[in-house]
Design goal:
Length: about 950
C-alpha cells in the first residue's frame, strides 16, 4: 500500500509542476461557457434548425446577453475528473452548491430533511434549502419525487445530458414557485446519433465503497422526419456500512451546555456512560455493576467526565455505529421520439424512469432503565439472593444491545415521468410551444429490525414455570403472548436469536406523489427598435400535485399495556421508528406570465449595447392564495471586452403538500433537557401546518464580465437574497427555543413545543421533559449575500492544448432569524439543526486539462473550503468553535484508442490523491448520540483515496 501511495503522490506532484509555466502559455481560442450555452440548437427540431436557448429567460437568445449569472458545465467536463461518479454528485462540486443531500448526508429515515429517502440526490443552491432550488429538464419543471416536495435528481437520464445550466438568483417570474435561490436546468442532447457505451468500477483505499457503473445510449434518424434515442444506466454502490470503518471517525460528539460555566466541547472516543454494551444495573445493592461477560457482573469502569453527565471519554459506556455512506443500486431508463409533422410543426414524446434501492443502517436497541424482577431466571442465583436480601423485588438496567442487528431501512423508489409536446413557427419571427408532463413517484420504505416496544416489555419480564423460562405475559394472556420468547439482557451477547426475532418487526411505508403539468408559451419579435429587435414572450401553466401515504407503523399505533407488569407506558408508540400515513391531499396552481427584452442602446458613446429586460407572473394556489412575482434586469456591453449585468426580482416558494398536511409522526430522540440537565429518550413529534402561506424572496444580483483576450474570461457577480415569511421547522428541543421558554418563566409560545410534568420552574429530575414538538411556521427570515467568481482560460502549454477553469464562492453569512431567539448564522458553520448542512464561507474548485502528447489527456480537479465554525449560534460558548479546512486533489488519465471503427477511451482515476481525512466535528444538538450522526461536515469526502478505472466506446 505504501508503494501505491508514493506513486500517486509522485503522479500528482508531476502534474502540478507541469502547470507551473502557465504564464508563458500562448493564447488560443477559449471555450466560453456562456457562448457554448447560446450556441445549442433546439434538440426538439429533428431537422436541425437552430434555435437558441438560454436558461433563465424565454426572450434572451444569447447567453452573452443574459443579465442573470449562469454557470454552464458540460457533462463531459463534470465527469472528466470524476468518471463513474453520479452526474449529480459531480455537479455538487460546483461552489454555488452547499447543503445538498445524498448518500453521505445521514438524514434520519423518516425525517423531512431526507424526504423519506436517505440517499436521494437533492440539490441545494447556497444552502438556502432544497425546496428553494427549482430543477428543470429542458426548461420544463420536474415533478417532485419525495414526500417533502423535493426532487431526487437521479431521475435525470445521465447518459444523454449534454450540459447543466445553473442560474444563481431568483427566477420565479420566469419559471414559477421554488426558484428562490436559483434554477438547475439539465439540457439533453436530443440529436444524438450512434451508440455509446460506458463502464467503470472503483474501490476505496480501505477496500470498501465499491462501485460499478455501466451505461449505453443509442440514437438514430428514422426517415426524413423523425429521430429516436434511448439510454440505460446501471449503478451499484456498496457504501460504507459502519462509521467505525474509518479510523478518524472515532465516536465524535459534543458535550457541555454552551454556557460560560459549562461550554460546549468537541470530543472523540465519546461514550454514553449509562449504556454499556453488556448492561448495567443502575440502582440498589448491585448498582454500577456491569455484565462485561454474559451473566457475570463486574464493576463499571468510568471514563473521563465531560460537561454532559451522560457522556464520558473512554470507559465502559456504550456507543453508536451507524452507516457512513449508504448503499445505493439504481436503474435509469430514457426514451424519446421527435417527429416533424411539417416544416412549421414538430412534436415529441419521451419517458424518463429511475428505479433504485438504497439502504441505511442506524440505531442499536437501547434498554432505558428497564425494570426487571429480582427473580428473573436469566439472572444468576447469587445475584438474585443479593437483591432479595436487600429487600429488592425489582431492579433497573440500562444497556446498548450492540451485538444485536441495527435498525435497517431499505427504500425502493420508482420515479418516472412522461413528457409530450408540440412546437412550431407562427411566422414573422414568432414561435410557440406546448408541453405536458405526467410524473409519478412511489417510495416504499421497509424498516427491518424496528423495535416493537410492546413485545420488548413482554420479553423482558421472564419467569420460570415448570423449569421452563417463559414470558410472564404468556401465562396471563396466552392468546396475545403465546408466542412470546423471553429475552436475556445480561451480557454483551446474551440475547437469543429467537428473542431478537420476537422483539424486532419489519414495518412498511409507501408514499405516492403525482404531478400533472401543462404549459404553453409564445415568443418572438414584433418589431425592431433603433437598437435592435424587441423580444417578447407570454406563457401560461397549470399543474396539480397530489400526495398520499400509508404506513403500518404510525405514531397513532400505540402499545397496549394490558397483561404487562413492567416497562409499558400508555401512549408509547408500538414501534421505535414511525412513519406517517397521509390521506390523499392535492394542490392546484395556475399561472400566467409575460417577459420582454428591450434594446436601449447600440454602438453609442457610452457602450456597445444596453438591453433592459423584465418579467411578471401571476400565480394562484388553491391552498395558499394569490401572488405576483417579477424580475427586472439589465445587460450593458461597455466595450467588446467588458460588460456589466444586474437583476432585481421578487420570488416565492409556496408551501408544499408536506408542509401543509403532513400527518403527525414520532421519532425517538435523546436531546439534552436544559431545564433538568437530563437526556432521556423521548418522542419528537412532527407534523404539518395547513395555515402556511408562501415565502417571499427578494434578490439583487450585479456583476462584471471581462474578456481581455480570446482565451481568457473573468466573471465576478455579487448577490443578496432575503426571504421573509420563511417556512422553517421550529424544534422545541433546540437550545435557543428552550432558553426562550425558560427565561420567560413558561409564558413564551415556544413552551408549547415541549411537555413535562410540573411546568417550567421545577428543575428536579422528576420534571424531565416527556416529549418535544417540531412545528412549521411562517415566522422566519432568511438572508444571505456574497459573490461568485468564474475564470476560464484556454491556450497552449509547450505547444499542447491546455484549459483551466476556476470557480469560487464567497458566502460570509446565511442568517436564519426567528422572533425572541438569537439568530443563527449558518454561513461559515458546519452543523445545524433540522437537517442544516455545512456552508463554508469560501468554496473553490479548479479544473485543469492538459494533453501532453497525442491521444493522452490529464485532468486535475482541486477542491478547497475554508475552516468553519461548528455552530453558527453566537450566543453559545465553546472551548473551540472550529473545524479545520479541507482540500482534495483528484487526477484522471485518459488514453484515446483508435479501434477498427468508432472511438474508444480507457481511463484511470485517482480521487483524493493525498488521502486527506475530513476534519472531525459534530452538532451540539445531537446530545448523547455520539457516533450516530455527523462526525464530518457534509460536502467533505469520507471515503479516503479512491481508485477507479473504466472504458468509453462510441460508434
Amino acid at each position: 500500500m505504501k508503494s501505491i501511495k508514493t506513486t500517486a503522490i509522485l503522479l500528482a506532484g508531476g502534474s502540478v509542476l507541469a502547470l507551473a509555466p502557465i504564464a508563458n502559455a500562448q493564447d488560443a481560442p477559449a471555450q466560453d461557457p456562456e457562448t457554448e450555452q447560446a450556441d445549442q440548437s433546439d434538440p426538439g427540431d429533428a431537422s436541425g434548425e437552430t434555435t437558441l436557448v438560454v436558461t433563465g429567460s424565454r426572450v434572451i437568445k444569447n447567453g452573452n446577453n443574459s443579465p442573470s449569472p449562469v454557470t454552464v458545465v458540460t457533462t463531459n467536463d463534470l465527469l472528466a475528473v470524476q468518471p463513474g461518479a453520479n452526474l449529480n454528485d459531480a455537479l455538487n462540486v460546483l461552489p454555488v452548491f452547499a447543503g445538498s443531500r445524498g448518500a453521505g448526508s445521514n438524514p434520519s429515515t423518516g425525517g423531512s430533511a431526507s424526504g423519506g429517502n436517505g440517499s436521494a440526490n437533492q440539490l441545494n443552491l447556497r444552502n438556502m434549502g432544497i425546496t428553494r432550488t427549482l430543477v428543470l429538464m429542458d426548461g420544463v419543471r420536474i415533478p417532485p419525487t419525495l414526500f417533502n416536495g423535493a426532487v431526487d435528481v437521479d431521475l435525470i437520464p445521465q447518459m444523454l445530458v449534454q450540459r447543466v445550466d445553473v442560474v444563481t438568483g431568483g427566477a420565479s417570474a420566469v419559471y414559477g414557485s421554488d426558484a428562490v435561490s436559483g434554477v438547475v436546468n439539465y439540457v439533453l442532447d436530443r440529436n444524438f446519433n450512434g451508440v455509446k457505451v460506458e463502464a467503470s468500477a472503483g474501490i476505496s483505499e480501505y477496500g470498501d465503497a465499491e462501485q460499478f457503473d455501466a451505461g449505453i445510449a443509442y440514437g438514430t434518424k428514422i426517415g426524413e422526419n423523425a429521430h429516436f434515442e434511448a439510454s440505460y444506466q446501471y449503478h451499484d454502490g456498496r457504501g460504507i456500512l459502519r462509521r467505525s470503518d474509518r479510523p478518524w471517525m472515532n465516536l465524535v460528539g459534543v458535550a457541555g451546555a454552551g454556557t460560560a460555566a459549562n461550554p460546549y466541547q468537541l470530543y472523540t472516543n465519546l461514550r454514553q456512560k449509562d449504556y454499556p454494551e453488556g448492561g448495567m444495573i443502575t440502582a440498589g445493592a448491585l448498582a454500577n455493576q456491569v455484565f462485561h461477560t454474559n451473566g457475570v457482573l463486574s464493576p463499571f469502569v468510568n471514563g473521563t467526565a465531560t460537561g454532559t453527565a451522560a457522556l464520558q471519554v473512554g470507559g465502559d459506556g456504550g456507543d453508536w455505529d451507524s452507516s457512513l455512506l449508504q448503499p445505493l443500486e439504481s436503474h435509469q431508463l430514457f426514451t424519446r421520439l421527435d417527429y416533424d409533422f411539417s416544416p412549421a410543426v414538430r412534436g415529441y414524446v419521451q419517458f424518463s424512469g429511475t428505479f433504485k434501492k438504497n439502504e441505511n443502517y442506524a440505531e442499536y436497541v437501547r434498554l432505558n432503565n428497564v425494570q426487571l424482577t429480582s427473580t428473573n431466571p436469566f439472572l444468576a442465583p447469587a445475584y438474585q439472593t443479593t437483591l432479595l436480601n436487600a429487600g429488592q423485588t425489582t431492579f433497573r438496567l440500562r444497556k446498548t444491545m450492540s451485538e444485536s442487528p441495527r435498525q435497517h431501512s431499505i427504500s425502493d423508489s420508482e420515479q418516472w415521468m412522461i413528457n409530450a409536446g408540440l412546437a412550431g413557427d407562427l411566422g414573422a419571427g414568432f414561435k410557440w410551444g406546448v408541453d405536458y408532463v405526467h410524473g409519478r413517484s412511489t417510495l416504499t420504505t421497509q424498516v427491518e429490525n424496528n423495535l416493537n416496544n410492546q413485545r420488548l416489555a413482554a420479553a423482558l419480564d421472564a419467569v420460570s414455570v415448570g423449569g421452563q423460562i417463559v414470558c410472564h405475559a404468556a401465562t396471563v394472556n396466552p392468546a396475545v403472548y403465546g408466542n412470546c420468547v423471553p429475552l436475556n439482557p445480561f451480557g454483551p451477547t446474551s440475547e437469543s436469536q429467537a428473542a431478537l426475532d420476537y422483539i424486532f418487526g419489519t414495518t412498511n411505508y409507501r408514499a405516492v406523489t403525482v404531478m400533472d403539468d401543462i404549459s404553453a408559451n409564445i415568443a418572438g419579435s414584433p418589431f425592431d427598435t433603433w437598437a435592435g429587435p424587441l423580444n417578447v414572450a407570454i406563457s401560461a401553466e397549470w399543474r396539480k400535485v397530489s400526495f398520499s401515504a400509508r404506513s403500518d407503523a404510525t405514531s397513532e399505533n400505540l402499545v397496549n399495556c394490558a397483561g404487562l407488569r413492567y416497562n409499558c407506558t400508555a401512549g408509547t408508540t408500538a414501534y421505535f421508528l414511525t412513519l406517517p400515513a397521509n390521506p390523499l391531499v392535492s394542490q392546484t396552481v395556475w399561472e400566467v406570465a409575460g417577459e420582454v427584452d428591450v434594446p436601449i442602446l447600440k454602438d453609442s458613446a457610452i457602450g456597445k449595447s444596453l438591453n433592459v429586460s423584465g418579467a411578471a407572473r401571476f400565480t394562484r394556489y388553491n391552498t395558499s392564495g394569490d401572488y405576483w412575482t417579477w424580475k427586472v434586469g439589465a445587460d450593458w456591453h461597455i466595450t467588446d471586452t467588458l460588460r456589466m449585468r444586474g437583476t432585481w426580482s421578487r420570488d416565492i416558494r409556496a408551501p408544499t403538500l408536506y408542509d401543509l398536511y403532513a400527518e403527525r409522526f414520532i421519532v425517538q430522540v435523546n436531546g439534552t433537557d436544559l431545564l433538568t440537565g437530563l437526556s432521556p429518550s423521548i418522542p419528537s413529534i412532527n407534523g404539518g401546518n395547513p395555515n402556511l402561506k408562501a415565502e417571499i424572496g427578494k434578490t439583487i444580483t450585479g456583476g462584471i464580465v471581462w474578456k481581455p483576450t480570446s482565451g481568457l474570461s473573468i466573471a465576478l457577480d455579487g448577490y443578496q437574497i432575503q426571504v421573509t415569511d420563511a417556512i422553517l421547522a421550529v424544534n422545541g428541543g433546540e437550545t435557543g427555543f428552550q432558553n426562550a421558554c425558560y427565561s420567560s418563566g413558561g409564558t413564551s409560545p415556544y413552551c408549547a413545543l415541549q411537555t413535562r410534568p410540573n411546568g417550567f420552574t421545577d428543575t428536579s429530575a422528576a420534571n424531565a421533559w416527556t416529549a418535544v414538538y417540531n412545528g412549521l411556521f411562517n415566522i422566519s427570515e432568511i438572508k444571505t449575500w456574497g459573490a461568485d467568481l468564474e475564470i476560464n482560460y484556454s491556450g497552449e502549454l509547450f505547444g499542447r492544448p491546455l484549459s483551466l477553469r476556476v470557480l469560487g464562492a464567497y458566502q460570509p453569512h446565511l442568517y436564519f432569524r426567528q422572533p425572541n431567539v438569537p439568530s443563527r448564522d449558518q454561513g461559515g458553520a458546519a452543523f445545524g439543526p433540522v437537517g442544516f448542512s455545512a456552508t463554508p464561507t469560501y468554496r473553490v474548485v479548479a479544473f485543469a486539462r492538459f494533453s501532453p502528447v497525442e491521444r493522452f489527456t490529464v485532468d486535475i480537479l482541486q477542491r478547497w473550503r475554508n475552516p468553519m465554525k461548528l455552530s453558527g449560534e453566537d450566543n453559545l460558548v465553546w472551548v473551540s468553535n472550529r473545524i479545520g479546512s479541507y482540500a482534495t486533489t483528484s487526477l484522471n488519465f485518459t488514453y484515446d484508442i483508435k479501434p477498427a471503427f468508432g472511438d474508444a477511451q480507457v481511463f484511470f482515476n485517482l480521487q483524493n490523491v493525498f488521502d486527506a481525512e475530513p476534519p472531525v466535528g459534530a452538532f451540539y444538538g445531537n446530545g448523547t448520540r455520539a457516533g450516530l450522526r455527523d462526525g464530518y461536515a457534509v460536502g467533505d469526502d469520507p471515503r479516503g483515496r479512491y481508485y477507479s478505472a473504466g472504458v468509453r466506446l462510441k460508434f
